[in-house]
Amino acid sequence: MSNKIIIKLLTSSSCRQLLRRPTVQNSWIEAKQFASEGKRGKRKFVEAAVVKSTKSTKQTVDVWKTMSPSDLASALSVDLSEITEILESIDRRNVDAIIADSSLDDVSILQTAAALSFKPRFVNGPPKRVEQEDADLRPQPDASPKDLERRPPIVTIMGHVDHGKTTLLDALRNSQIAAGEFGGITQHIGAFSVELTKGRRVTFLDTPGHAAFASMRARGAKGADIVVLVVAADDGVKEQTAQSIKFAKDANVQLVVAVNKIDKPNADPMRAMRSLLEHDVVVEQLGGDIQCVEVSALQSRNLPALQDALLLQADVMDLKATKNGKSEAVVIESSVVHGIGKVCTLVVSRGTLKKGCILVAGNSWCRVKTMHDENGKIVMEATPSQPVRVSGWKDDLPTPGDLVLEAETVDRAQKVVNLRIDKVMREKADKDWEETRDQRDKARETYLSNRQKLLDRGQRFGSTLRNIVHRNQRIEKDVEDGSPKFRLIIRTDVEGTLEAILEILNTYKSEQCKLQLVDFEVGPPTEKDIELAKETGATLYTFNVETPAKMKQRADAAGIQIDSFNVIYRMVEALKGELSARLPKQTELHLVGEGHVLKEFMISDRGRKRQPIAGTLVNWGNFDRNCVYKFTRGNQVIYEGEIETMKAGMEVVSNAKTNTEVGLALSDKNIRFKEDDQVEAYEKRTIIQEIDWYPPGF
């Protein structure tokens, strides 16, 4: 090839574009030298190509479809004249859009952003105008001292499960709450207003003592002025007692100790008081400043002394609130009641709550439709420290513990709720964007690593997906792994119970069986739940919820299992049973007989090759044809497995008992026997596995 042809090729338009790349600059210089000198030859070596990851320093800017030139200038924070000049240079047809300030095409938007050294990112639309945080509802400032009036104290009864908390509350209000509780344990917070001596009222919150309801006890402590710590005289401080003390201290709430069950023969009130010392609770009887009263809730003994202690503590605290102004309250419990709808149990903390008030709690709002007290009687208004059940909530149920604030109008309430929802969505979007950016950076790093592998092989072109990723993953298939699974849908009566169940399920860490929570909600099962369970193969658990007869029929027709529960530990036991039932059964070998070889016989059966037979004496137990046999010689196992035949003389038998001689033939004809070889017979037994999940408190 002549020098003129080489120079002509190197100066062609297609080659000129290739030669602009930095990686071939040196090759271009050398080629020119070869052409000018008229020499031909090969390079002695090829420089290794290195792929470098250079992070972009361009500022990211959000753009969207149908942007106008003014929108684009505002998003890029540049003058409109500069945008106009760039748009005209990109396409003369953009002049009409500039004059009318109408929408631009996507290419013009992207090229304009790139020309100004921005990194464009398409979003769904223009950013919404975010209202100021001041538009949100906030608690009112402290009331004037002249408007304050004495209010009843809010008392939470806390302690270990089965120490008599609800029975004590029964005795104080002369009712039968405990008799109506499933399994004798409280499973959600109950709020009651009780009239004590001297005509004074006290609001009681009865919290669950079971370990599963720790969050409910924490909320009960935070919403109270005084905590009555119930300790059984025959049991002392237990796990939930210590937890209740911690919650009370964290909430900075005053303690009054009630040593219950003093009527029992093995009661030791002083030992129960001393057990409190380990948790820095020193009662008056031991020289401390915490009131302690010995009572018997079952026999209603010494209850006036407990009432006096509560009222004395309330007087010392000088609890006051105003009945004027907008009402404020705290959500104690929320649920869905058939025929009424979404309801919440509230305890008013300020103002006077009336029918028709507009309330906002969390991301929910309501116009008060009805108000009932704990006895189901209609209430027209509720003053501070009074518990009421309010209906009329829209959208989602408020979360227990949410602060309830009164709004002036429905429009204001809806704006506040929308503002709070938008705030949550923005926070979630920011979090998702961060996660997406991290994933994109990781994917970029993986691509550059794979590209470098191709370059190391001498391949400058080709797909990394086909040549690296697929080649490495060619034996991996996305198939069902075959591991046991249990899918679950949960429906409960109230939000607090659902929260407690979810906390229990969060403790599940077993690798034996996968537990998949498909859905969970408050309220009875619906047709949507039946369809979801059918699609996913899930089991539906209901807790303290009555399943409508129509839904039961649909579930039976679809083959969906619905299990109903009203006691928390029975639900956990049933769940553990379902998980255990899905585990593969294990086979264990149990020794059922022993013997030894008397002599080896070589027998030919119907002209076939002679095979060794172990003439064996059964020392004890029973040799069965289906047993697994182990032959040992000294300390060495010469055979372990099933036998081919078992004969007594010339007769084929299926078992042999103690002191019986029997001939054993193996399927492996190469194994030979010697006198005094030991023989052990093992029976196969199927064992059902139990799931290795032990939730706290169960």
From TrEMBL:
The chain's coiled-coil residues are: none
Endpoints of the signal sequence? none
Record's SUPFAM superfamilies? Initiation factor IF2/eIF5b, domain 3, P-loop containing nucleoside triphosphate hydrolases, Translation proteins
Task: Enumerate composition-biased segments (Basic and acidic residues).
Answer: 128-151
Q: Which UniProt keywords apply?
A: GTP-binding, Initiation factor, Nucleotide-binding, Protein biosynthesis
* Gene Ontology terms for molecular function: GTP binding; GTPase activity; translation initiation factor activity
Q: Where is this region: Disordered?
A: 122-151
Location of the Tr-type G domain:
150-320
Is Nucleotide-binding given among the entry's keywords?
Answer: yes
Q: Which CDD domains match?
A: IF2_eIF5B (cd01887), IF2_mtIF2_II (cd03702), mtIF2_IVc (cd03692)
| Similarity comment text for this entry | Belongs to the TRAFAC class translation factor GTPase superfamily. Classic translation factor GTPase family. IF-2 subfamily.
- NCBIfam families associated with the record: small_GTP (TIGR00231)
Function (record text): One of the essential components for the initiation of protein synthesis. Protects formylmethionyl-tRNA from spontaneous hydrolysis and promotes its binding to the 30S ribosomal subunits. Also involved in the hydrolysis of GTP during the formation of the 70S ribosomal complex.
The protein's name in its UniProt record: Tr-type G domain-containing protein
Protein source organism: Caenorhabditis briggsae
